[in-house]
UniProtKB/TrEMBL annotation:
InterPro entries (UniProt xref): Galactosyl_T (IPR003859), Galactosyl_T_C (IPR027791), Galactosyl_T_N (IPR027995), Nucleotide-diphossugar_trans (IPR029044)
Residue ranges annotated for the Galactosyltransferase C-terminal domain, each copy included: 84-138
Name of the protein described by the UniProt record: Galactosyltransferase C-terminal domain-containing protein
Ranges in coiled-coil conformation: none
Organism for this UniProt entry: Timspurckia oligopyrenoides
GO biological process: carbohydrate metabolic process; proteoglycan biosynthetic process
Major localization listed first in the record, in broad terms: membrane
Amino acid sequence: NRWNEFMYLRSRLTAFLHEQNIRAFRFFLINQTDTHRFNRGALLNVGFLAAQSYGCDYLALQDVDLIPVHHNISYRFPSPGVYHASSRDVHPRYRYKAFFGGVLLLQTQSYALLGGFENGFWGYGGEDDEFFRRTMIVRNKYKASGNFSVTRPEVAESKEERSRIQYWEHNHPQSVKRDKDKQFMHRERVKSRGPHALKFECEKVYSADAVTSNDTIVLDVQLHCDYEQSPQCSTDWLQSIQTQAANQH
């Protein structure tokens, strides 16, 4: 299913990029092949390293199920800082104030300045909230100079008018379930921030033309996890927690 979602995204997003006269780009598909729980922050860090090695000067950190459909969503070279393309005013689902997920665009220098994502969030959620807090700290630090800003798409002023405009297509089948279990305290999380603190193995880099075309790079990666330090990365740990919770009810 994820591969089909990516191929759909690739087709639609390529057309969208061409409409904005963006011709030089690559898709980096980072595929987690280990048996641990999903770790979005760590995979984004791997993607940063891959993009950097190919000489990319900016990144679009892209959820595979979000497809831009409105011309006010920009994928052009961003100013220093973070451009939140799928902010709460335009996201088809999430509206809470501190929402910072979906699609972010930033220069590789800005990503390095922020230190990348935390590697210790296993399961969906948490990594973007933590990234948002650090982004706000850096923004406030450079506020006087204006050398780092957080920007969002221009939208209609009234909430009623915005509700009639579609900015994004949300291509997420209801049958696809996400690992959202949060039954562990964040203080138990071993802090490991950024791409250079991440331990992983790149099993395979697919030759692009063998997969789809020369604009796509696919990496199969295995993330490292120390079960003693971070038991929450294990699917067995998750199942035991869920069993305990079920027995309490």
